Amino acid sequence: MFLSVLGSLFASMTSTAHAADYALRIQVKELSRDASGKTDNQPVAGVSISVTDANGVVVGAGETDESGVVVIPVPNKADYTITLDESTLPDGESLDPKTPAVQQVVADSFITNTKVISYFTGVSQSASMSGFEKVAQRLVDGVRLGLVLAMCSVGLSLIFGTTGLTNFAHSEMVTFGGLAAFVFNVTGLSFLGFLSFLPGIRDDGTFHIFWAAPIGIAFGAGFGWALNDGIFGRLRRRGIGLVTQMVLTVGLSILLRNFFLSRFEGRTRPFREFTLQEAIEIGPISITPRDLIVSILSLGILVMVALGLRYTRLGKATRAVSDNPDLASATGIDSERVIRLVWIVGGALAAAGGIFRGLDEQISFDMGGRLLFLMFAGITLGGLGSAFGALVGGFVVGVMVEMASLVVPTELKTTPALLVLILVLLFRPQGILGKAQRVG
Amino acid sequence: MDWNLVLENSLKGFIGINAVYFAVAALGLNVQFGYTGLLNFGQAGFMACGAYGLGMTSKYFGISMWWGIPLGILFSVALGLLMGIPTLRLRADYLAIVTIASAEIIRLIVRSVKFKTYFGGSDGINGFSDEFRKLGNSFGIEESAQYGFWPFRFTGRELWTLVVGWIVVALLGFLVYKLMKSPWGRVLKAIREDEDAVKSLGKNVFSYKMQSLILGGVIGTISGMIFALDRASVQPDNYSRDVTFYILTALVLGGVAKVSGSIIGPMIFWGLFTFMDNFLRQVAKDPINIGNLTIMNSTQVGQFNYMLIGLTLILLMVYRPQGVFGNRQEMAFDGR
Amino acid sequence: MGAERELSSTAIAARAALSGVAREPGASKADPILSASGVRRDFGGITAVDVERVEVQRGSITALIGPNGAGKTTLFNLLTGFDTANSGVWTFDGRSMEKIASHRTAAMGMVRTFQLTKSLTKLSVIENMRLGATDQKGEKWWNGLFSGIWKSQEASNTERADALLERFKLSHMRDEYAGSLSGGQRKLLEMARALMTNPTLVMLDEPMAGVNPALKQSLNEHIRGLRDEGMTVLFVEHDMDMVHDISDWVIVMAEGRVIAEGTPDDISKNPAVIDAYLGAHQGRSLMEEEA
């Protein structure tokens, strides 16, 4: 089922041509109007562009010249991904939403030997913001990222707590959720078209995001279950060691990510709904209704998780197993059942995080991978194995990363997370909510 | 299908420059992971140290390329200390987390616009390897001439890096072999099994782990240098997380805690990878369909190959964690 | 009870030195090799160790006994630097040890074994033994490459190791992986390996656990042998026969504290000790394992 759903993401075909001297001519222009209201497109120089082929291998890179143009030779007529490094845009400029930073070129679109690709920029809001507004806006962005990170991290931390496994494929569980929702929302499953009598489901088998999101979360839960019962549960029963399992998760991560890439391709794509929204202004900050809803939903989910851990029997059992597996099983807790639950809930939460991140930033095959190290920083800060620690740590890291972009270039905004990671390990290795343990 | 070409490329892949730089990096990873049990998931970061050490000599310092060798080693020692000091007293997972994070941050820093003056941003650095090529010429290797016999035909340019590369592999392999036979190596192997036992016998476990991390890192740095010299360029995105993972796969394939494993593993890895790549590219010239579902078209061949790498690593871990040639009794990690 | 046997001269000396010592917790010894006071260790609200004062007489075999959870292993861990005390000071051979890292205690002559044996199963028996030798030149990485530097030292270490293996009746397993040894043989190997460090104080954590009865007698002999060679032995044990058989002095712990001290005969008659054991057996069902 999973495979058939994702398999329905068709990849475009490629014609292989053999001739020399192909090139991509990329131009970047500022889309602005002069005083009389006429458009006045100025070239933008010094913007970094890189071109990768279908395997993600960099085939060329360059910087726009005075006329805003860079010509990058490519080996042949094939599919390429062009990435504009947004941090190299002049201060205050940002890309027009119609020309996202990552663009695809398919082989068939080479009419002559040179293919022209255009980017347009405009003056972004942030240029006109006051210092206080910037801080407030970053804080809001940080809260959004923090909520997503917290959601993604709970499973990672609890799986570690209950089984001792550091799951390097957790990022792929995040991506999986986003992609599963994407399949229902955008690709559509034509055989489900008969459901179109329901509101929000169309004849072509595409589902409104309000359907697709919960479905994606359910798939995430199923994926977590499948990973535990199909792979890791069996390995535990066979007594396979933790390092072996950890290396296995690395293999799983490679396998899944490239599967996602082959089916989804390298570009980023948005969900169908909520792509462009007018921001509403609340005091100094502006937030789109979409982001507001996503944030409130994330917060709701996180509160539910926290309450569930605190007050339900299974939640308490989970924390007990995470604290001390031997002791927990001695008191009659069925730790395998708890571990299964952790994988299912962790998978669902990771998927939810992926979907919400996708609403925020669009979907890509590597969206989880980009968050992986931030998740690790979060759960280390919170205390490895502690569920509440993951919530708090993930949130703090998310806020911190966005706030950091006030002082460091946006492209390096994740750097402080490494710093936090190192400082925590040096001075409080058990994390802020972890219990002091013997360390060394 | 052009079997001749598939075979030629595969055999070249078996001993090609990719196998060389993977073998060197795998040797380093083997010192850390195989012999000492340290989970270094940031070998790509160490490789970047070497590549950028070379690249920065001309780009930033304007000095001879050969200074890049000590410079790169200096970088990697600093990186090893940065990764090791916070983590080597803690349980093994923390090192994995910090190394993966550090390598990622290094990649972001070297490709950033902010530090473009030093590292060349996302374009990377080119044109620093002339002195290396000139040295090849002085040994009588013509850059553009063809050398060798079927299937091992190389241009002089390729041949020169290959020769130097394999000499480096042999030297480093011998070095690691000797070290692991020495009392120093014995301490590392003992730490891999039970560091408390080693501490109780009066050895400074932290210090040995640090030495292992740095030695393995410096060897990884040399791998990055070979790669950079071969490409005559340094590209930030060639030092991503995946590179470390593929090297790990190649190492496990050959068998951990054995010098031969870390050399044969990468050879098999690249031999098979090149074979599959060439083979599938020919098969998938026309998209392969089942019903109306495209299973694979030519653009997906690469991804399919990488999926196979992941699958290989999974299957190895489940069924043959000691690698293709390993001996289960000597199996190094996890003590089982 | 073990068989009555003739006491060695060192045993007589040790017992004579201890004869005048008060039979009370924390009693001062004539010539303590190890003395600790105010040692305390809390694990999140539970006090695992709270020892006001304890001394170990040089050249004696001292047993440390007590019910499960009494804090014996934790005390071992603290004294050898494997765990960090919340408070307390202790000296070994007159040197203050609170701030000394675990690996340095061994280098100073205070070596320990573990309750769960830590044989390095993927190393051969002889490699296990060689690892124990201290100050090895070849353990510096820059020397490792040049076997000329360390070959002769390695040879003399091997000679010493072989002699110890002979003594512990492990010679026939010399080149096998330590993983192929039986539980009892692993205990012997661990003890022999500890002796490679040339210790003055040997601390054994439950040397008899998991050892078959046939081996127990020879283990007893080995421990006596250590004292007769001038070493001091401190060991944790549950096997009361063994404690009675070989120890010169017994220290009893319960609930983290030292509750009694004396000769084996004194202790077996001490009502506080009997109480501690009985009480422990009634009150606890969970939490048995020591931290």
How do the helices and strands line up, and which of them pair or pack?
The complex is a heterotrimer of chains A (440), B (336) and C (291).
Chain A: H1 2-7, E1 22-30, E2 42-43, E3 48-53, E4 58-63, E5 69-74, E6 80-84, E7 93-95, E8 102-105, E9 114-123, H2 131-163, H3 170-187, H4 209-237, H5 242-264, E10 280-282, E11 285-287, H6 289-311, H7 313-323, H8 325-330, H9 335-361, H10 367-382, H11 387-404, H12 415-427
Parallel strand pairs in A: 1-9
Antiparallel strand pairs in A: 1-2, 1-5, 3-4, 3-6, 6-8, 7-9, 10-11
Helix pairs in contact in A: 2-6, 2-7, 2-9, 2-10, 2-11, 3-4, 3-5, 3-9, 3-10, 4-9, 6-7, 6-9, 7-9, 10-11, 10-12
Chain B: H1 3-15, H2 17-35, H3 43-61, H4 68-87, H5 92-110, H6 116-119, E1 125-126, H7 130-138, E2 146-149, E3 152-155, H8 156-181, H9 183-193, H10 195-200, H11 205-231, E4 233-234, H12 241-254, H13 259-283, E5 288-290, E6 293-296, H14 301-319
Antiparallel strand pairs in B: 1-4, 2-3, 5-6
Chain C: H1 9-19, E1 32-43, E2 46-57, E3 61-65, H2 72-79, E4 87-92, E5 95-96, H3 102-107, E6 110-112, H4 125-132, H5 141-144, H6 147-167, H7 183-195, E7 201-205, H8 213-228, E8 232-236, H9 240-246, E9 249-254, E10 257-262, H10 264-269, H11 271-283
Helix pairs in contact in C: 4-7
What does this entry look like structurally?
Chain A has 440 residues and is α+β, with helices and mostly antiparallel strands. Helices cover 51% and strands 13% of the residues of chain A. In chain A, the strands form three sheets. In chain A, strands 1, 2, 5, 7 and 9 form a five-stranded mixed sheet that branches. The N and C termini of chain A lie far apart (47 Å). Chain B has 336 residues and is mainly alpha-helical. Chain B has a single domain, classed as ABC transporter involved in vitamin B12 uptake, BtuC (Orthogonal Bundle). Helices cover 69% and strands 6% of the residues of chain B. Chain B has helices at residues 3-15, 17-35, 43-61, 68-87, 92-110, 116-119, 130-138, 156-181, 183-193, 195-200, 205-231, 241-254, 259-283, 301-319; strands spanning 125-126, 146-149, 152-155, 233-234, 288-290, 293-296. Chain B has a two-stranded antiparallel sheet with strand order 1-4. In chain B, strand 5 (288-290) and strand 6 (293-296) form a beta hairpin. The radius of gyration of chain B is 20 Å and the shape is globular. The N and C termini of chain B lie far apart (45 Å). Chain C is an alpha/beta fold and 291 residues long. Chain C has two domains: 9-119 and 198-283, 3-Layer(aba) Sandwich (Rossmann fold); 121-180, no CATH class. Helix content of chain C is 39%, strand content 21%. Chain C has helices at residues 9-19, 72-79, 102-107, 125-132, 141-144, 147-167, 183-195, 213-228, 240-246, 264-269, 271-283, and strands spanning 32-43, 46-57, 61-65, 87-92, 95-96, 110-112, 201-205, 232-236, 249-254, 257-262. In chain C, the strands form two sheets. In chain C, strands 6-7-8-3-9-10 form a six-stranded mixed sheet, with helices on both faces. In chain C, strands 2-1-4-5 form a four-stranded antiparallel sheet. In chain C, a hairpin with a 2-residue loop joins strand 4 (87-92) and strand 5. In chain C, helix 4 packs parallel to helix 7 (183-195). The radius of gyration of chain C is 19 Å and the shape is globular. Chains A and B meet through strand 3, strand 4, helix 5, helix 10 and helix 12 of A and helix 4, helix 5, helix 12, strand 6 and helix 14 of B.
